[in-house]
Amino acid sequence: MTSTPSSLDWPAPDEGTRRPERLPRPPGALRRFWARHPRLTDVLIALLYWLTAMGLTLLTSVQTTADRPVPVVIAGMAVLTVGAGALLWRRSRPWLPVFVSWGATMAAAPLVGVSDIGLIPFALYGLAIYGSARAAWIAYGVSVPVATTAFLLGGEERTGEGGVIGRALDGGVPAAILLLIVVLIAVNIGNRRRYVEALVDRAARLERERTQLAQLAALDERSRIAREMHDIVSHSLTVMVTLAEGSAAIAPEDTDRAVDGMRRVAETGRSALTDMRRMLGVLSEDGPAELAPQPGVADLHDLVERFRTAGLPVTFTSRGREPEDPTAQLAVYRIVQESLTNALKHAVAPTSVEVDLRFRRGATAVIVTDDGRGSAQAPGDAGRGLVGMRERVAVYGGRLDSGPVAPHGWRVAVTLKHDREPAE
User: Fold this and answer.
1) CA triplet 356, 358, 363: central angle to 5 degrees?
2) Could you give the CA distance from residue 412 to residue 320 in angstroms, rounded to a whole number?
3) Structural domains of the chain, count
4) Is the pTM value of this prediction over 0.85?
5) In a domain, 423, yes or no
6) Model confidence over 212-265: pLDDT tens digits?
7) Average pLDDT score, the chain
8) Is-contact 375 346, C-beta < 8 A?
9) What does the alpha-carbon distance between residue 300 and residue 319 come to, in Å, rounded to a whole number?
10) Is 315 left (phi over 0), alpha (psi -120 to 50) or beta?
11) What pLDDT, on the 0 to 100 scale, is given for residue 16?
């Protein structure tokens, strides 16, 4: 079993790594120091055990009356050294020190003449912290008989009451109690550590999700602004070009009408600039100080009049009570505006363009029909206006049907459902 680098091992403040927001630092300078130097911690732990084991082994070999050759004792010390070295992998491979500690403890006991089980608690502690509580309890169940066997192997020259069983109990019970205390402490610390790591990971994921949501909201706002700007610019430029061409055509014959047409070009341009300032004002931190409200159903009469001035024979009919939601009214206004703009741009010699609004409880129907030859959406057109209308309709869970009508002409039929809040 391998463990991943802990999310609690904070980098040093001068490393330039930013910690998650609102996450407290580990308390204490010493704790932060050890967290930043995990390899140094492992080396010191292994060195501490090795020095203790070597000291006890030398002391036992001097005091014991048993005739143990020096090479045998050195072999036992070498085995314990290997066990101490295995502690360096307690973070990355927590099971490795456990297996090595079992083998080293039983192998060194008959060589040095003493049952040194001090390696097993270090290995169990690392397994509980960097592995899992379940693994620690399984290892504890195996460690007790291993420690008992090592006690028997290391004290063959001693005799006691009760024989082998009595000696096993004398060594196994204290070992079981000691290892139980170590495992209980380690499991508690390990569970708390994993719980904190889970909280840190959850906070990081929430922060990433918040950033992603903010990016999606920004993209949605950019799409909305682009849609609005398309409607404003496309409508205004189409009307202005049509008026300018008409004024230029009649200027030699009727100067007054040509002048009036150019005035309307100026008025349309000023209106477009006002709309653009209103839309771009949302990008400013302070926002515009005084701007007109977004257009609604009440402004459709002025819109229709501008198209009539541009030469489009528009008839406007409205039935029912318009919705109170200003965003729904804006959607209706933009749909009518886009439909009339497409008719002005693409319909050839229309004799009638009908705009029919039907307001019902919780729904609005918008029908724009022209009898011009050609198409209200030319094949070469990118169709962004139609895409914008579909997006507006989708916000309100409505329906958009657009296509040619017999014998010639184009029809746009939209149904908006505004009995609920717009979809996010």
Assistant:
1) 135
2) 20
3) 2
4) no
5) yes
6) 887 777 677 667 666 667 666 767 777 787 778 778 888 888 887 778 878 877
7) 77
8) yes
9) 13
10) beta
11) 41
Residue 339 in domain: yes
pLDDT in tens, 7-47: 344 344 444 444 445 556 666 777 777 777 788 888 888 88
Residue ranges making up the domain that contains 406: 297-424
Q: CA–CA separation, 197 vs 207, rounded Å?
A: 15
Residues 54 and 192 in one domain: yes
Q: What is the DSSP string of 17-51?
A: PPPPTTPPPPSSHHHHHHHH-HHHHHHHHHHHHHH
The 10s digit of each residue's pLDDT in 333-390 is: 888 988 888 888 888 888 899 999 999 888 899 999 998 876 545 444 445 667 778 8
Tell me the helix, strand and coil percentages in the chain, rounded to 5.
Answer: 65, 10, 25
Q: Are 114 and 57 in contact (CB under 8 A)?
A: yes
Strand, helix or coil for residue 417 = strand
Which of 181, 211, 241 terminates a domain? The answer is 211
CATH code of the domain covering residue 325: 3.30.565.10
Is the same domain home to 183 and 309? Answer: no
d(C-alpha 76, C-alpha 176), whole Å:
24
Report yes or no: 272 and 231 within 8 Å, Cβ to Cβ.
no
Kindly state whether residues 189 and 310 are assigned to the same domain: no
H helices present in 64-118, as ranges: 70-86, 95-112
Same domain, 45 and 183: yes
Whether residues 190 and 313 share a domain: the answer is: no
Those residues whose C-beta lies under 8 Å from the C-beta of residue 121, and which sit 6 or more positions away, are: 178, 179, 182
Instruction: Centre a 10 Å sphere on the Cβ of residue 138 and count the other Cβ atoms it contains.
Output: 14
Q: What is the rounded distance in angstroms from the CA atom of residue 210 to the CA atom of residue 126? A: 36
Is 340 found in the same domain as 205?
no
Residues 147, 151, 153: CA angle, nearest 5 degrees = 115
Contacts of residue 399, defined as CB under 8 A and 6 or more positions apart, other chains included, come to: 393, 414, 415
Domain assignment present for residue 316? The answer is yes
Whether residue 257 is contained in a domain is answered as: no
Residues in the chain: 424
401 class by beta-carbon count within 10 Å (0-12 exposed, 13-18 middle, 19+ buried): exposed
Q: Is 216 exposed, middle or buried (0-12, 13-18, 19+ CB in 10 A)?
A: exposed
